[in-house]
Design a protein that fits this description.
The chain has helices spanning 6-10, 45-55, 156-172, 183-198, 215-218, 234-250, 303-306, 360-375; strands at 16-17, 32-33, 41-42, 78-79, 118-119, 148-149, 152-153, 174-177, 203-204, 222-226, 259-262, 265-270, 275-280, 289-296, 310-312, 319-323, 329-334, 341-346, 350-359. It is of the alpha+beta class. The chain starts with 5 loop residues before the first helix and ends in an 8-residue tail after the last helix. Residues 84-94 have a biased composition (Basic and acidic residues).
């Protein structure tokens, strides 16, 4: 199998697609490719078998003119170090569906939740879809939006990206945008997600390093992954395309990152039985993910009654930030160790859609490190 060089795959500046994740748990290392469709990946045969009920609905025999297809019962995945062919996201209109994205890893770097803390006030200000700062319980530093840049009038998404999201992220590492798509579109996405939930395709959230059977003690969500191309996911695809557009407008101005890819969308549901997700970091070990983007779908959410708050503990600060999972709210934050966070117990059904964006350089280093470790000879010990 030919491998495309790491440098070639990191060279582009558009949002390239990357498919190097276990479909069940999101693990990046020692992946196996499905021998039937050759498009999906797993970290072990056990995870491939566990995901087969869902995967078989989209698994189609790859073209193999040189050999006979294997029976389904004897399919074995082919080991690979690279995942699929990268594709370039083209500029979309407001009605275009999003392109294929790659699988995300689940979170690691777990630590015990803190005993307490003081809520960090005046940190972030919600902004509306049109680009103006809205009234919010999280009152803070308002950001005045200019109507022009370099003598040219900006579109509302550009204004929102350049005059609000970029400065807010670079200053705080966290940014909230309310009324992102509007009520009608938000409700249509919620309808898609509820219908998807009813199909039974959601499974228990997994951990990258699962050393015990106590996963549910760490995270209690049910999840599924989507590229947006599956039947019934058209509105989710539209959301992903709008996320892509927003990040594209910010690209090159978010820290020192050069964003060139993203994951599939992780659709998550906390069933409302008091489950949450203990304090963790999305990307503790430099796997390439730089920005976490979450869209919330919870109509008339009351945090005091329903719980489910996302609490972020910004690095080197004694305070924390509470983000309520309100309907049509979009949240950005740095994915690395600067933002440990937890989902507090939810007592009502709580839906969210998460996408992670990759920094090209960090992602390339992570792949090169992995490939180097695979090629290095095992060390010898001498008596």
């Amino acid at each position: 199998m030919e491998r495309e060089s790491v440098k070639e795959r990191a060279a582009g500046t558009d949002l390239d697609m990357d498919q190097q994740y276990c479909e069940l748990c999101g693990k990046m290392e020692n992946l196996l490719k499905c021998g039937r469709c050759r498009n999906s990946f797993y970290c072990s045969k056990e995870h491939q078998k566990a995901d087969w009920k869902k995967h078989k609905q989209v698994c189609k025999e790859a073209e193999k003119p040189q050999c006979q297809p294997q029976p389904e019962s004897t399919q074995q995945p082919a080991r690979t170090a690279e995942g699929g062919q990268d594709k370039q996201l083209k500029k979309k209109s407001t009605e275009q569906q999003s392109k294929t994205a790659s699988q995300s890893t689940t979170n690691t770097g777990l630590s015990n939740p803190p005993a307490g803390g003081e809520r960090m006030k005046d940190l972030i200000t919600s902004a509306t879809r049109s680009g103006s700062v809205s009234d919010s319980k999280q009152t803070g530093e308002g950001i005045k939006l200019s109507s022009k840049t370099n003598g040219q009038t900006m579109s509302p998404p550009q204004k929102l990206a350049m005059d609000y999201i970029v400065p807010c992220m670079n200053k705080h590492g966290i940014c909230v945008v309310d009324n992102f798509l509007g009520e009608e579109t938000g409700l249509s996405i919620l309808e898609d997600v509820r219908a998807l939930h009813k199909t039974g395709k959601f499974s228990d959230g997994q951990l990258v390093s699962q050393r015990s059977d106590s996963t549910k003690d760490i995270r209690g969500d049910k999840i599924t992954w989507t590229e947006g191309r599956e039947p019934g996911c058209e509105k989710v695809a539209f959301l992903m395309s709008r996320m892509d557009d927003m990040v594209r407008h910010c690209n090159g101005k978010l820290g020192n990152y050069r964003i060139n890819g993203r994951t599939k969308a992780m659709v998550a549901c906390y069933p409302g039985d008091g489950t949450g997700y203990v304090r963790h970091v999305d990307n503790p070990n430099g796997d390439g993910r730089c920005v976490t983007c979450i869209y919330y779908l919870n109509k008339d959410w009351e945090a005091k009654k329903h719980g489910g708050i996302l609490r972020i503990f910004p690095e080197a600060k004694a305070q924390f930030v509470d983000i309520e999972p309100k309907f049509d709210r979009l949240l950005f934050f740095w994915s690395d160790r600067r933002n440990p966070h937890e989902v507090q117990p939810a007592y009502y059904t709580r839906y969210a859609i998460t996408v992670w964006y990759f920094d090209a350089d960090e992602r390339a280093r992570a792949k090169e490190k992995y490939l180097t470790s695979k090629m290095e000879p095992k060390s010898l010990s001498f008596a």
